[in-house]
């Protein structure tokens, strides 16, 4: 075991503070990563504050990790010391179930091992990226291409793949009209990626406050959902609507914005169940769907795609001592568009 520095929530709802944690020895197929940057995802805040219950404390959040390989186990073939690597929301899976064999490790029948706030396959707690080092099996490490700066790459490991996967699956591309609901950490990546895929992109945001940003990020149109005329004007417009918000939506109103056979895909979810008049699906053969991150192979495809198109996240780099303040600013939607911790400050 190696003792390394980390930022942790000592118990539910407590502010994060500097501490030390143990990382496992580098095994045959493991790599040791010298973490350089860790993004702050909205779900870090939920979990550190035990919003979903059953949190494992002390908790070191962080599943948007970018760094450099510092050591490799004897069986490692994909990486060498000095390589630029990333780790996202999961660090292991069974490797043998149908989902794993199809490259959809996020849907592993035994459950994937989450990067933090989980127990690994030996029953040891996992600790995330708000730390100086991480040991991970090479299968769950991604190669970060030279074309993307490490700090701008970190958020791609969650926000990037969470939006790339559904955009690809539901065919965002030339001739398709895509709406992105919400322009936050996820939404801003959805706009960049959908634009790079060649789709006509519309942002649906509560107000026009971030309109200039949205257009700069690649949106063709920008509408305020607080204005009821938006829903009249855009009725029957979109092939795909990607909702990145966790506030409860008026699903009937959004489904009416879809073309025949269009799909409303959710990557954000309200905590409470929603009710839906199914005629809003039946009329127009419309669908409502969900999507969870992406498999490892698809995550690599996303990173390669982002490198080719010069895409990284829009970030504000902070020191570890600013994490608690950053959490408050995320909750107040006061970040454009992702905080990234410089782990050298831990
Ligand atoms: Zn995340
Ligand atoms: Zn599996």
From TrEMBL:
Keywords: Metal-binding, Oxidoreductase, Zinc
PROSITE patterns per the UniProt record, alphabetical: ADH_ZINC (PS00059)
InterPro entries attached to this UniProt entry: ADH-like_C (IPR013149), ADH-like_N (IPR013154), ADH_Zn_CS (IPR002328), CAD-like (IPR047109), ER (IPR020843), GroES-like_sf (IPR011032), NAD(P)-bd_dom_sf (IPR036291)
EC number(s) reported in the record: 1.1.1.2
Alphabetical list of SMART domains matching this protein: PKS_ER
Entry cofactors: Zn(2+)
GO molecular function term, any single one: alcohol dehydrogenase (NADP+) activity
Catalytic activity: a primary alcohol + NADP(+) = an aldehyde + NADPH + H(+)
Domain Enoyl reductase (ER): 14-341
Keyword Oxidoreductase applies: yes
EC main group: oxidoreductase
Entry-linked Gene3D superfamilies: Medium-chain alcohol dehydrogenases, catalytic domain (3.90.180.10), NAD(P)-binding Rossmann-like Domain (3.40.50.720)
SUPFAM superfamilies: GroES-like (SSF50129), NAD(P)-binding Rossmann-fold domains (SSF51735)
Family: Belongs to the zinc-containing alcohol dehydrogenase family.
Record-given protein name: alcohol dehydrogenase (NADP(+))
Organism: Streptomyces griseus subsp. griseus (strain JCM 4626 / CBS 651.72 / NBRC 13350 / KCC S-0626 / ISP 5235)
């Amino acid at each position: 075991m190696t003792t390394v520095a980390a930022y942790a929530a000592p118990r539910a709802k407590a502010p994060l503070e500097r501490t030390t944690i143990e990382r496992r020895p580098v095994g045959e197929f493991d790599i040791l990563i010298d973490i350089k940057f860790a993004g702050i995802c909205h779900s870090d805040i939920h979990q550190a504050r035990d919003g979903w219950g059953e949190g494992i404390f002390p908790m070191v959040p962080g599943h948007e990790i970018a760094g450099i390989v510092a050591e490799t186990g004897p069986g490692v073939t994909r990486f060498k010391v000095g390589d630029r690597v990333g780790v996202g929301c999961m660090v292991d899976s069974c490797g043998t179930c149908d989902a794993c064999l199809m490259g959809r490790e996020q849907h592993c029948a035994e459950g994937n091992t989450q990067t933090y706030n989980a127990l690994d396959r030996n029953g040891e707690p996992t600790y995330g990226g708000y730390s100086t080092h991480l040991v991970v099996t090479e299968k769950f490490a991604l190669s970060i291409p030279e074309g993307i700066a490490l700090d701008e790459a970190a958020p791609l490991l969650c926000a990037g793949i969470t939006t790339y996967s559904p955009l690809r699956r539901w065919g965002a591309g030339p001739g398709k009209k895509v709406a992105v609901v919400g322009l936050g950490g996820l939404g801003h990546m959805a706009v960049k990626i959908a634009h790079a895929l060649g789709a006509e992109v519309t942002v649906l945001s509560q107000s026009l406050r971030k309109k200039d940003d949205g257009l700069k990020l690649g949106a063709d149109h920008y509408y305020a959902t607080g204005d009821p005329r938006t829903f009249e004007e855009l009725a029957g417009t979109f092939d795909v609507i990607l909702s990145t918000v966790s506030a409860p939506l008026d699903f009937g109103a959004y489904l009416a914005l879809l073309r025949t056979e269009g799909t409303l895909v959710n990557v954000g979810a309200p905590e409470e169940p929603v009710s839906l008049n199914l005629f809003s699906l039946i009329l127009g053969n419309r669908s409502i769907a969900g999507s969870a991150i992406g498999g490892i192979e698809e995550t690599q495809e996303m990173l390669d795609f982002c490198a080719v198109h010069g895409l990284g996240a829009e970030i504000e780099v902070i020191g570890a001592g600013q994490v608690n303040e950053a959490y408050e600013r995320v909750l107040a939607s006061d970040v454009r568009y992702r905080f990234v911790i410089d782990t050298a400050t831990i």
